[in-house]
């Protein structure tokens, strides 16, 4: 298996852009089988990186709660915990 350690350092935007490039190559059908396998594996690593970054961002998003007067009263985690 190829080492994709560099994927762990990519920003969401860079990982997504590379993933989109890989999907385009694979969908084009002009990639040799062995290269397709390597690209697919890298795509899986990039997808996992994007998923992890999205989950982290979601955990940090807070919902503003409103008091009885309609003014912001504080914040709570998005999932209500």
UniProtKB/TrEMBL annotation:
Catalytic activity: Exonucleolytic cleavage in either 5'- to 3'- or 3'- to 5'-direction to yield nucleoside 5'-phosphates
Entry keyword set: Cytoplasm, Exonuclease, Hydrolase, Nuclease
Top enzyme category: hydrolase
Keyword field contains Amino-acid biosynthesis: no
Listed InterPro entries: Exonuc_VII_S (IPR003761), Exonuc_VII_ssu_sf (IPR037004)
GO molecular function: exodeoxyribonuclease VII activity
PANTHER family tied to this protein: EXODEOXYRIBONUCLEASE 7 SMALL SUBUNIT
HAMAP family listed in its UniProt record: Exonuc_7_S
Purpose: Bidirectionally degrades single-stranded DNA into large acid-insoluble oligonucleotides, which are then degraded further into small acid-soluble oligonucleotides.
Protein name stated in the entry: Exodeoxyribonuclease 7 small subunit
